[in-house]
């Protein structure tokens, strides 16, 4: 079970348009690059499932190339990755395999080759929200999440190899968190994968290779939790994290009652304990300041400077609604708060669709909902920057539960898992900054889940543009309505955890065509198919 932190739910900060298909794909390729030991001379990407069906529109191919040449998820040059790869002399081949069945819809095989014939084959899976795992290396099944620093050793399966590996790490005072041996057969080829609690310095690799049975060794640095500075791990780190950790809504409410805190305060303490347990500074407020800055730019720039999206389906909607509201004045159909939430959500999806920089909350396709609500409350109700921080932390507290116990991936659970989750998070955040109780915050999130239950994921042409943009714009006001209902003291018959479980089951019961494949729903309407040349 992945240990989700703040940056997994409110993040990544990334170039759009899709957290699972863009940021997640980039992360897979980045892990492949580290496993290979640098930039390859040639690389082949074979995409399957939803990756193959919608990857072109999501920029998956661009993201994979960006990762393999060393770009980060928030680098604006991701859109130019093919051009940059050519300049670096990297030969790229992309294969779109829509026929082969795979276990996970967001799957890609990566084959890296050097100019001297050395090659590495790897299978990666994007599991939602920008996270990814390595499932296979050179035909051998493995499981590498990137959550911890990983040491991956390719070896002959003979006696004494594991002892040698362990002794080398011990000599460098590196604590092994987990160790798994994956082999083709007894005495055959094998991979030992160790997750460590500590950074691994470059000398370790050379000393591992001193053993004649070891064929190769690579270090994959941790790619999650935080990018903060290294700090000593406190002696009571494990106890501190256990104190603030929770696995469900019921546990969160019990935690808040025990500690006398809000859900925002509980999640802040959990994040600080989580970061301390892995020896990095949490820097919660600094990260939230950057999040709010990126959100603000993404939600406001398109209003004054609209641009068409890469796919050509959207662009200028936020400016049009702004102008229409001004023209109608008091006779406009939306009040100023609802209008701002709608407009900011529209604008954020415009930024996302032109491969601008956004914050996945919890995904790129749903990135307009939380900023729509938070920034509208700032502008129309006067909530402060510090209060918005608390709202985002409360949203993260709820998003963590959904990600842990259900899914925030459209390919797994439909749009209810993306926009539905985002609106549930935003509703909880709004209740929290308005002074509501932890119970009311979870009631608000439950209201949203019930209202948006069954929402399908059907991007036209595989683009995170239509109907995604309008769903974000309508989900933001829905979050405010659900928050107000909860603040009024209207309770919920079905508790939050049961709503999450129902959402998970409904998502898994959806046919494949309604889970981000662009083969059903609005994407299959005649006009949509005409737009994308017979999809």
UniProtKB/TrEMBL annotation:
What enzyme class is recorded for this protein? lyase
PROSITE patterns the record matches = ACT (PS51671)
Q: Name one GO molecular function term.
A: L-serine ammonia-lyase activity
Cofactor(s) demanded: [4Fe-4S] cluster
- Occurrences of domain ACT (ranges): 150-222
User: This protein's superkingdom?
Assistant: Bacteria
Pfam families recorded: ACT, SDH_alpha, SDH_beta
Name the InterPro entries for this protein.
ACT-like_dom_sf, ACT_dom, ASB_dom_sf, Fe-S_L-Ser, Fe-S_L-Ser_bsu, Ser_deHydtase-like_asu, Ser_deHydtase_asu, Ser_deHydtase_bsu
Reaction catalysed?
L-serine = pyruvate + NH4(+)
Q: Where are the transmembrane segments?
A: none
Q: Give the similarity note.
A: Belongs to the iron-sulfur dependent L-serine dehydratase family.
What PANTHER family has UniProt attached to this entry? L-SERINE DEHYDRATASE (PTHR30182), L-SERINE DEHYDRATASE 1 (PTHR30182:SF1)
Q: What is this protein called?
A: L-serine dehydratase
